[in-house]
Amino acid sequence: MNLEKSFGAPARAERDGHWFKAVDVFKDVPGFIDADDPAEIKLAGAGMSNPNYLRKVRDELSKSDSFRKIYKGRDKKGRDKEIDSVDFLADIENTEAAERHTIAETVVLDWRGFTDASGADIPYTPEYMVTVFKQFPRLFDAIRQFVSDIDNFRIESLEDDVKN
């Protein structure tokens, strides 16, 4: 097995990002109906091959009250620290916002061909992407699902399929 051929291109694409057709990323989103739309989105992976993603996830976890209590281990009397329901519920509420920010900053790297209601191009910024994720949760879910599938990053095989 040639490791570079099998895993090299997907790992680079996951780390550095790759331009994908929006219709491929959003094909399962109800209401996304224009199969001829030329819009593209540059995505990196959401996993071990993307060090920016990993760093951001660690940063977000370190802000979690529950995580801090687990990490600190035992109290001064040697008992396991308890995670109270207030901390746990606050962490759950913050998790979704943290995940939107993480993916907007480290997974979605750029886009082209995305327009507003009047047809004007919308420049990509992570801050704007967070608002898009809030406004269109199915779009967020589609991106999250797409980047979690390594087969989508097998760029050489995708390009070979296009050539044939």
What report would you give on this structure?
This protein has a domain at 3-50 and 99-163. A 3-stranded antiparallel sheet has the order 1-2-3. It has 164 residues and is mostly helical. It has 8 helices and 3 strands; from the N terminus they run H-E-H-E-H-H-H-E-H-H-H. The longest helix has 22 residues, at 85-106. The model is unreliable at 158-164 (pLDDT under 50). 20% of the residues are buried.
Q: List the uncertain runs.
A: 158-164
Share of helical residues:
40-55%
Biggest sheet details: 3 strands, antiparallel
Distance separating the two termini? 23 Å
Secondary structure blueprint with pairings:
Elements: H1 3-16, E1 18-21, H2 22-25, E2 40-43, H3 51-62, H4 65-72, H5 85-106, E3 108-112, H6 126-135, H7 137-147, H8 155-163
Antiparallel strand pairs: 1-2, 2-3
Provide the descriptors you would attach to this structure in a database record.
164 residues; mainly alpha; three-stranded antiparallel beta sheet; 55% helix; globular; disordered C terminus
